[in-house]
Amino acid sequence: MVGPKAPKDPEKKRSGFYIMRNKQIAGSVQPDGRGIQFIYLNDGRMISSARIVGNITDDTMLGMLSTTEGFRRLIHSIGVSVEMESADKKAEFVFQMYGKSDLYRSGTTLCMDVPADGMEYVLNLSAYDWSDDDAIPGQIRFVFDEPQKDGEAAQALATVKFYLNDGFTAPEPEAEEMVDFTCNAYQEMLCKSLVQVGNNMRLKAAIKRAKQGEDITIAFIGGSITQGAGAVPINTKCYAYRTFEGICRLAGKGVHENIHYIKAGVGGTPSELGMIRYERDVCREGTVTPDIVIVEFAVNDEGDETKGVCYESLVRKILAAENKPAVILLFAVFANDENLQERLCVVGEHYQLPMVSTRDCVVEQFYKKAKEGKVVTKNQFFYDCYHPTNIGHQIMADGLLYLIYKVDKSPMDEDTLDLEVVPAVIGNTFEHVWLYDRNSKADQVKILSTGDFLERDEELQGVEMDRNLTQTKEFPYNWKHVKGAKPFVMEICCTSLVMVNKDSGAPNAGCAQVFVDGEAVLFVDPKVNGWTHCNPLICFQNRERKTWHIEVRMQPGDEDKEFTILGFGVVD
Q1: Which of these, 128, 132, 429, 492, has the minimum number of CB atoms within 10 Å of its CB?
Q2: pLDDT-above-90 percentage for the chain
Q3: Which fold has domain 434-571?
Q4: Buried b (16+ CB within 10 A) or exposed e, 376-385
């Protein structure tokens, strides 16, 4: 008989802090059949998580997290736990540094298999060879052998904790109470989400038709929050789908009966892009006429060059439809308590539109104590510094449903909105903008030469539309430059023109210039944002309606680099 062996000396107990704590995760399907949950750390996300989840307030420590060099001086090891229904499964934990010369390829990648038994497994940073090209902590990935299946709940709960090197300490984590969605304090919090009911005629009419069994369509357009980022699973736990389910319940209908659902959120993009893609992504090229449209760009529109003109143009475009759809303005919020509500709510006030503010709903109570009105903590509400958790998405949906249920119980107003009489309050330059791409045919556009923009780019930003878990590629009918100096040349009759290009973090991405009648009007660097997504940029606006000569040329010296024109937004 062999007795038990003497245990090793215990590891030194190190101070540490969480950046993820019992977060729900699920793997999105990948081309190789695996499932991956991506958690991005750049652009201040990890620092925000250290503040919100880890209670770190020391500015020196927070600053060290912004570079790989500082991260290695601060962090000794990373503790990771994964819990799944079947403890004999596993997930691969990947912590990737972004590189200086090649964002996604030249940095160090730390990997560790983590059994899904809920136990903590520790990755020691000193056990790895580090690249001299490391720039910043870039992303975490949880890799599963299989992706999440449609209708399946979260695949796992994950926790990530940073253990500190000697000389650094972190506060002890605070205990959190479960969110009580039935308590009076929660209902009082929801009341604060209502900015205004506005004129209820269009919304009430749509609800009435739904109750009578008529077909209606509810559509959502916005950024990554509307796409469902932070929700697990992204297709059925996002605020959009939960709002849709609530309207179905109100109407006494099932989710597969007469009420139809459109979700068209595209991460990292403002209303400047939303106004261009509305007919394609929401109206599905004229095959869908939405009856209720929720517009969510309050945390995306810092990138709107017009500071509200594009937003109002989109709102007017929706309101002008022949079937008179209801428009609800939704103001989401970032973890720093900020959004652009003050800029955008003037549009809702001007047209007497229903408005709901997640900021007004949750921010004030974040800073209260548990027994003095706090209902939900920031850690419970936010998945990262930009996106809500499942709890956050539910609160957003409940705020919208609070408005909708209130309207349902109210008498119907008279519809007094006449867009031909009511002028714009900020501007409506792009109210009639339409998308022109490689698949379009229009008499006022002549492609004189595609030059060396010959290819079609297939490495595009993808989004989960509607209830789908698979991604739809945005702007697939594009013009891609690979090599050469010949410009893309077209003539177009219009008053305003927006070019949509593909941003990229790839090292072979090059810069381009746009010329209008020989004048350089736009310099485009696709690496500014550093990731693959759609970027609209105004070439000109409010000019004389005439035929303009447009050229897109590669920047001198970048003739052998890649650049993709995704399409154009055109105003006749």
Answers
A1: 132
A2: 87
A3: Jelly Rolls (2.60.120)
A4: bbbbbbbbbb
